[in-house]
Amino acid sequence: MAAVRWALEPVDTTGQPRVLDLGAGTGKLTGVLCAEGHQVTAVEPDEAMLSELVRLHGGVRALPGTAERIPLPDGTMDAVVVGQAFHWFDQEKALTEIARVLKPGGVVAALWNADDVDVEWVAGFGEVSQSPLGARDFDVTHVMPAHPLYTDSEQATFPHAQRRTAESLVATVSTHSHVLVAPDDEREELVGRMLAYLKSRPETATGEFDLPMRTLVKRQVRV
Fold first, then answer.
1. Alpha helices, H only, 17-90
2. How confident is the model at residue 134 (pLDDT cuts 50, 70, 90)?
3. CATH number of the domain that 66 lies in?
4. What is the DSSP string of 84-151?
5. Structural domain count of the chain
6. What are the CB-based long-range contacts (under 8 Å, 24+) for 60-69?
7. Which long-range contacts (CB under 8 A, 24 or more apart) does 54-57 make?
8. What does the pLDDT read at residue 132?
């Protein structure tokens, strides 16, 4: 919640802000925005994900579309937020299109969740959970670059935690693309390696534990 509130801090909240959840997926961020009392529109290109979002958040206006072609009129949104997806966009086209639908003074904000690798056991898990086909983390340094249609570029990081077990954490990582596309024998070996590591650590060997995480937020204001 703190990360979302900071992301939307420049928005005038005297009314009910109109917020676009762009690349909304199945609606995880949509639910947070609704809980904050915003008037939410969700846009997502994948039909299956959009259907799941509608099932979970039936009162939300949900539309098929992309960051480069947003199915909304000019200047109708107070804010556009993007969870875990901005790095997939064509940056120049997306920022221009987002500026089109934002009101002057509106905010575009991108959020990413990542494990807190400053914690020693979390960093170790990150190493053992990599496969030859890719790592679990990605670099967002150059995502959402400076753009002439925006000002006040800022970013902030917010610590939080998720309650996990060794089995639930491994199950989640097993849904990541670098694991799903691995050959069966390689995937089986990777899953076994992750579980063995967690069972070997006193912080995670038995029962539930907190997985330390960080949310990085980048925001800019429409001129």
1. 28-35, 47-56
2. very low
3. 3.40.50.150
4. S-GGGS-HHHHHHHHHHHEEEEEEEEEEEEEE-TTSHHHHHHHHHT-BTTB-S----TTSS---TTEE
5. 1
6. 60/27, 60/30, 60/34, 62/24, 67/22, 67/23, 67/93, 67/94, 67/97, 67/98, 68/93, 68/94, 68/97, 69/97
7. 56/26, 56/27, 56/30, 56/31, 57/27, 57/30, 57/31
8. 53
pTM over 0.85: yes
Tens digits of per-residue pLDDT, 138-180? 578 889 999 999 999 999 999 999 999 999 999 999 988 788 8
Domain hosting 192: range is: 2-222
Q: Which residue has the tokens 């807190």?
A: 116
| The length of the chain, given as a count of residues | 223
**Percentages helix, strand, coil for the chain, rounded to the nearest 5?**
35, 30, 35
pLDDT 10s digits, 59-106 = 999 999 999 999 999 999 999 999 999 999 999 999 999 999 999 999
Average pLDDT, stretch 128-132? 76
From residue 3, how far is each of 86, 142, 163, 218 by CA, in Å?
A: 16, 20, 18, 10
Q: How confident is the model at residue 135 (pLDDT cuts 50, 70, 90)?
A: very low
Closest Cα to residue 67, out of 31, 39, 43, 42?
A: 43
